[in-house]
Every structure is written in C-alpha cells, then in structure tokens.
Amino acid sequence: MSSSYSDLNGRVVLITGGSRGIGARTAREFAAQGAKVTAVGRDRAALDSVVADITGRGGTAIAVVADVTDSAALQDARRRTEDELGPVDVLAAFAGGQGFPVPSTELTEERWRQVLDSDLTSAFLTIRTFLPGMVERGRGSIITMSSAAGRQPSRANLAYGVANAGLVMLTRHLATEVGPHGVRVNAIAPSAIATEKVLAGMPPETQDKVAGTHPLRRLGTPEDVARTALFLASDATSWLTGVTVDVAGGRITN
C-alpha cells in the first residue's frame, strides 16, 4: 500500500521517460496522490496507454511526445503543460537507461556521446527548461534518476557509469546553487529493478542470482523507485536536498 502525501494533491508533475518502466509507474503513483501529471517520452502509443490508465481511474494526465535531448521539444512540453495543467511544481528527470554492457576497448566515440547525451545531457536540458520558473516562483522539487552504476563500478558500459556519476554531482551542485530560491534537488540511484525490459532480457535463474547479491534478497520494483520519488517530492522531505537515495536493497557502496 502506497503512503499518502496529501500535499501532492493538485501539484503539477512532469516526468520524462514516462512511457514505460519506472517513469510510467511514477506517473501513476503521483496521479494516485491527486497530482496532475505530464508524461513525456518518445512512444506515443505507450504514453497514451499510461494516460488512459490514469484518467480511467479519475486522475488528471496528459501525454507529450518529445526527444529530451532537444531543447526546442522540451520548451514545447513546458508550454503545453503550463497551458493545460499549470506551472510545474515537481520535475522528475527520469529519461535515460543506456547501460547495456560494452567492453571499454570496444566503446566507440559515437556510442560514448550517445550515452552521455541520453543520460546526462538530457537531464541538464530538462532541468534548464523548468528551473527558471521554479526559481521565479520560489519553490519546486527536482528529482534526477541516477543509477547504482554511477555509485560503484558495474557491468554497465563505462559511458553509462560516468553519466550517472555525473548526475549525482549535477544534483549536489544544483541543490547548493538553487536552495536559497526554495528549490530542492535530489537524486535516486536504483540498483536491479524488475522492469519489463529487464525481466525480458534476464532468465529466471539470473534473476535469482542477481537478487541474491542484495541483502534484501530480491530485485527492486518500479513501485519501490516511484514511491521514493513521492517521498522526495513531498513536504515530508522539505529540509532534504542534494542527497542521492540508493534504492538498492541494501547493496550500497559509499
């Protein structure tokens, strides 16, 4: 059962990477709290499915198709959200996920740039689009999506690890800079999360093996991450900024 955060009722929440997996679950969880949600992604059909699910349950949501490495597309997403729902109170920059293992000796310059754009530059561009309005209004909560791969070496490719480590510093730097303006910035760093994509590429015996490497002896779920996002966005964490929450089943290396 999800916790209740009454202060999120009526707030405008924009989630990138909102078409499936963690982002889609996060959109649904915010909507269940009474928030008005914009789900941003590149897959129109998947976004429409998320929005239909939310509105079918009495919630408020819109879908915006956008490439979050494109500043103009992000500005369009901001304008549409403000026109239909209002100014964004909570920004969840969750797009990314280019961690497929590649030996560093085989990592091309093209792939390096692609991963950094997808996972790090996209977060910067997304935040740059919505941060000025939050600063002007004197309030806002931003949540970035890092990864356990950005906290310690992993099987993910080098560019992915570097990008996600960069997201941790981006979060800390911005939190220090914009805290005086009433804007909080925090990060989530999930470990092995059982999204449809992960489960499709991981045989059951591998799932069991990976689960066994975590002290809580299970894979994480999209709900685990989404409910952490609710907590970070809510007034329950009004004096919390610049932190990275390891949603990792106890498998943490500081």
From TrEMBL:
CDD domains: SDR_c. Keywords: Oxidoreductase. GO terms for molecular function: oxidoreductase activity. Residues 11-191 form the Ketoreductase domain. InterPro entries: KR_dom, NAD(P)-bd_dom_sf, SDR_fam. SUPFAM superfamilies: NAD(P)-binding Rossmann-fold domains. Belongs to the short-chain dehydrogenases/reductases (SDR) family. This is Short-chain dehydrogenase.
